[in-house]
Amino acid sequence: MRTQVAIIGAGPSGLLLGQLLTRAGIDNVILERRSAEYVLSRIRAGVLERGMVDLLHEAGAGERLAKLGLTHDGFTIAFDEASHRIDIAGLTGGKAVTVYGQTEVTADLMDARKRANGVTIYEAEDVTLHDFDGARPRVAFVQDGVAKELSCDFIAGCDGYHGVSRASAPAGVLKEFERVYPFGWLGVLVDTPPAAHELVYASGERGFALCSMRSPTRSRYYVQVPLDETIENWSDDRFFDELRRRVPAGVAANVKSGPSIEKSIAPLRSFVAEPMRFGRLFLAGDAAHIVPPTGAKGLNLAASDVRYLFDALREHYLDRSAAGLDAYSARALARVWKAERFSWWMTGLLHLFPGETPFDRRVRRAEFDYIAQSNHAASAVAENYVGLPY
User: Fold this and answer.
1) What global pTM score does this model have?
2) Is residue 124 part of a domain?
């Protein structure tokens, strides 16, 4: 098999890149080790920056998003019983975020790719990357028990933190930066109306909680738990009792419990791998970086990577220029590190850390008070939350 761009991974970043390339007339093939059903079953992020919304429309996958996405002009931060709404639109000149689940984004991109007759090979086993340090990269894999090979001009590694792409980087070249947080998020998805019409981030003596949503009838809730916690210890009743204890009373009164559709515990980490290019292999999304979900940046960072990589590949094929490809890693990492900083800051502000002293807690409260009392401080939060420009 032969293609121009081989894309490893059929998550949102791989599908988005593939769809943009296809619409630009650049041939591509996506290889995914899991089934399409498995990819669609993953419950992930749900807050989209304007840049990602625009990219989905550019990719021809924004029709359902335009109809079903929930536009949010702000969100609330609560510290104990004190609350402050961050007026995103008022502080950023009318910008907003859109609440639309990653599962829906993935489904829309899959449908768009199918309509465009794009090639996606699911359940591709034993994927290995070869010769990307030269002019003729190739990807070996096994499909239905048969060994196959895909030759290409470039490889885009969009296969996540545990994928083969980053692991294929030359020995001694990759630098990794990591911060592992001493807690996780216990998340519950439930078919009940949200407790508030916008997201509520809450910090209290019992720890962090988040009231989010996926639609007007589907809610997504989280509470901070220790890393050694297990789902089996948390019945639905226990979860909702704890959630109500951690959010302001007015929000707690609106929390409607119900049987969980999905329940999981996700550890939190900050991670960056540098560089994001190795010859003709380019990393994008979780293959190169992870952020704690507090800042709502993971999926959006993958989208900005795709924006930069797509522009660079289009420039290569249509303008015969390598400038975009040469600048890709530095350009992407400049935005990645700003999002890493914001996500780290939000996590530190809102979570209860083991061994926290009364001084630490008072400093966190002072930070909250500063945001609530200063338009300059609140503007910095809003600017980062809504998404820095590409």
Assistant:
1) 0.95
2) yes
